Amino acid sequence: MSLSELPGIDRRVKLSNLGDFAERLSVMTNELRDQILAPRPRKTAPIFTIGELSEMCGIDRQKINYLATKEGSELPPGEVQGTGRARTFSLKDARSWVQQVSDIYQTPLVSGTREHRGRVLITANFKGGSCKTTTSMCIGQGLSLRGRKVLMIDLDPQASLSELCGLYAEKDVTWEDTVLPYIYDPDLEGGIESKVQSTYWDGLDVIPAHNYLHDAEFHLPAAQKTNPNFEFWSVLRKGIEPLRAQYDYIILDTAPSLSYLTLNGLMAADAMVMPLVPESLDFISSVSFWSLFAEVANGFVEHEVDKSYDFVSVLLSRVDYGSTSSAPVVRSWSQRAYGDWLHTTEIPASSVMSNGALAFSTVFDLSRAETVAKTLARVKQPMVDYCKWIDDQYVAQWREGQ
């Protein structure tokens, strides 16, 4: 039989076949999740050495040992290791030390609520693979390690942030656990607050996402069509407002598109972070984001709806410093395009980050015992510095009573 006589491959795909295909993929995904998250489908927070705690609190190890063993001390003593000269501390213990011992300004509480309004940060980018979700989680974790209480809100139907928070997006979450019920009914009993869940990470809560969040893209425009006075862009902002008294920071992770939910997030946010991988296509995609957002913003301004951001920060992420990297060229483009918006901190590319992403982890999830300390610090320290920069912007305002 000649090659011309071989039967061709039928590549036609019918809509009616997609259900079976999606089901097969779902089964495969569940199996992969079980492998990746084995032996148990829950993440655990890292353990901190006395050296790490020393760095976080800005005091020497001897003082930590003294305060940990001092009679009558209210500080967590940690757990003694080996011969008794070393100690380790849980995340909750470490946060308690930071709040009580470090010189990091801690926000006053009155009857369990904060004196200041919590700040809302949003990460946004059109380009998939821009480290947007990982950056969101790292910012939340990094701020919590400064003693802050943080709420993550996942607005992306892909629910990757929910996975990073330790949830099986398809097993542990239903559409009723998301912001969607509030989008449907802003008079929902308990409001958005009723959807908050705790996570494996002390000081960090989450409102998860589900693929049904796509329904908001139909509901919001339909509601506006029915009621021309309906402010589709302000639904989330109004829902978040009561939560500002309970959290120092509320971080919104969005889908890689200018969807109705993303617009709600952009209009609710006090500040915006755009992670940008220094590759040419990523840069062009970022320009497209601003072009489209500017068109939408002009429409708002024409209807006398305006707002301001405390800052917009473009953060170069997954930067390759190799000799053949395009990063230097794209960095120069970014400097010309974004000026002061481009932050001086850069997050380097690293196998630590790649392996962490595979395990639904971030650099903050990893301990020094699990990886090479210098390699981990190379990626982790820039993110620590960036979180400090964000926090410093608002500490200045909080000290002034804003």
Automatic annotation (TrEMBL):
Keywords: Plasmid. The keyword Zinc does not apply. It holds the Pfam family AAA_31. Residues 119-280 form the AAA domain. Transmembrane segments: none annotated. Gene3D superfamilies: P-loop containing nucleotide triphosphate hydrolases. The keyword Glycoprotein does not apply. SUPFAM superfamilies: P-loop containing nucleoside triphosphate hydrolases. PANTHER family: P-LOOP CONTAINING NUCLEOSIDE TRIPHOSPHATE HYDROLASE, PARA FAMILY PROTEIN CT_582. This is Cobyrinic acid ac-diamide synthase. It comes from Caballeronia insecticola.
